[in-house]
């Protein structure tokens, strides 16, 4: 796993980017802090995983890398979107490595229900499985329904995407007793800010939240000063004022 490492004051901050992004996302927000900005496997300069990993597999890979570093104390783990999924799994499984979390626009929980695919798509899928429809034709049908992330992903990374978008982290959230800070954009369409209240209801430890007016899913890029302020408050053991 490739990463940029910077020295600085205070505890270590580990920053995990979102899907399709890389370590550079947090360069401005973490300037001046001691930190590791990682390229998660399959992004930036890090090669893809050997198989279709879920967020817990990414967390285990990250834990192994941090164990090699020999951290003297738990880190503050910052995660945006996909990186937040990994951060939550890390904090639940290895509280000795993740002393607190700062999460931005993370799809932590699935909705109460998901609509079934249209009948035509389900018929095409069945036909493809029975080899009655050419694989290339079915792939074109699936791509027409897929998200931009799905269509941009290839090989094992497409399988990773399918795996993680079907995950939900109720058990992990209930297991996290460390402080958690939630930074959301009020205009986040990918993960609406209602997720903040849903996550807060499951987290047993101290929770701080801020929803930023005018910001969207990339709140960490649109308002890096807000993220820096939240990280500073977490490092100081305080709370964040909206």
Describe this structure in words.
38% of the residues are buried. The chain has ten helices and seven strands. A seven-stranded mixed beta sheet has the order 1-3-2-4-5-6-7, with helices on both faces. Helix 1 crosses helix 2 and helix 3 (119-129) runs antiparallel to helix 4 (135-145). It has helices at 55-69, 82-93, 119-129, 135-145, 148-152, 155-165, 170-175, 194-202, 219-222, 224-236, and strands spanning 3-6, 13-16, 35-38, 75-80, 98-104, 180-185, 207-212. Helix content is 40%, strand content 15%. By secondary structure, the protein is of the alpha/beta class.
Care to give the gist of this entry?
40% of the residues lie in helices and 15% in strands. The chain is an alpha/beta fold and 242 residues long.
Which SSEs are present, and which pair or pack?
Blueprint: E1 3-6, E2 13-16, E3 35-38, H1 55-69, E4 75-80, H2 82-93, E5 98-104, H3 119-129, H4 135-145, H5 148-152, H6 155-165, H7 170-175, E6 180-185, H8 194-202, E7 207-212, H9 219-222, H10 224-236
Parallel strand pairs: 2-3, 2-4, 4-5, 5-6, 6-7
Antiparallel strand pairs: 1-3
Helix pairs in contact: 1-2, 3-4
Helix content: 40-55%
Major sheet strand order: 1-3-2-4-5-6-7
Stretches where pLDDT falls below 50 for ≥5 residues?
238-242
- Percentage of residues in strands: 15-25%
Determine the structural class based on helices, strands and strand pairing. alpha/beta
Q: From N to C, what is the helix and strand string?
A: EEEHEHEHHHHHEHEHH
Count of runs of 4 or more consecutive helical residues: 10
User: What is the tally of beta strands?
Assistant: 7
Radius of gyration: 19 Å
Biggest β-sheet: count, sense, barrel? Answer: 7 strands, mixed
Average of the residue pLDDT scores: 89
Global outline: globular
Distance between the termini: 35 Å
